[in-house]
Specification:
By secondary structure, this protein is α+β, with helices and mostly antiparallel strands. It contains two helices and eleven strands, in the order αβββββαββββββ. It has helices at residues 2-29, 114-117, and strands at residues 47-48, 66-69, 74-83, 88-97, 103-104, 127-130, 135-138, 155-156, 160-169, 177-181, 188-191. The chain has a five-stranded antiparallel β-sheet, with no helix packed on it. Strand 6 (127-130) and strand 7 form a beta hairpin.
């Protein structure tokens, strides 16, 4: 009897833990509330903004380095491309919906690599192309295979602006100009600083 009771108690504890985890996950993904009260986070946070200035990236220059046009009025404005001492380049920008209705982000933006797509929607399909060195750089991944990009952004409402980022291996130090490519978006040439 004791063994059955212990096994039943363990199953109940595991079921409770799974239920609490799912509830917290759903609560974290839920909408509603005033987005202006929350501070923007680096992944899937969004702020509704009536203006067209890229103020979501504090400390960034007002003029974008490049603008990549996507489908259905999507516009990706690249605000910075910073070379870090760790051997990578972080590209920051804002994704804006200039259209009149809500737009679902095309699945192609996540890329087609199984290791990246199994972690959900991301900007894992982005690449940097170094024409001078004749190399293409893919988005970096963590030790679990998750892409080092903004994740979880699946749709953008009309007029909404969402901050995004992508990290890539750094091209050689003498390479300052690269082309950013993202599936379903036009390409854009950007300058790497740092």
């Amino acid at each position: 009897m004791d063994i059955r009771f212990t096994a039943r108690a363990r199953r109940g504890t595991v079921a409770l833990a799974v239920t609490v985890g799912l509830a917290l996950g759903v609560a974290g993904c839920g909408g509603g509330g005033d987005d202006k009260a929350d501070k923007p986070r680096t992944s899937a946070s969004a702020s509704k903004d009536g203006g067209s200035d890229p103020s979501a990236q504090e400390g960034q220059s007002q003029a974008p380095l490049a603008e990549l046009r996507g489908t259905d009025g999507l516009l990706l404005q690249i605000t910075s491309a910073q070379r870090d001492s760790g051997g990578f380049v972080t590209v920051n920008g804002t994704l804006k919906n200039d259209g009149s209705g809500s737009v679902v982000i095309p699945a192609q933006v996540s890329g087609d690599e199984t290791e990246i797509t199994r972690h959900g929607f991301s900007f894992g399909g982005a690449t940097l192309v170094d024409s001078k060195g004749k190399k293409r750089y893919y988005v970096l991944r963590d030790t679990d295979g998750r892409p080092l990009t903004s994740i979880g952004i699946t749709n953008v409402d009309a007029g909404q602006t969402v901050p995004v980022f992508m990290q890539f291996p750094a091209p050689p130090a003498d390479t300052a100009e690269v082309t950013l490519q993202l599936p379903t978006f036009s390409s854009g040439t950007i300058q790497i600083s740092g």
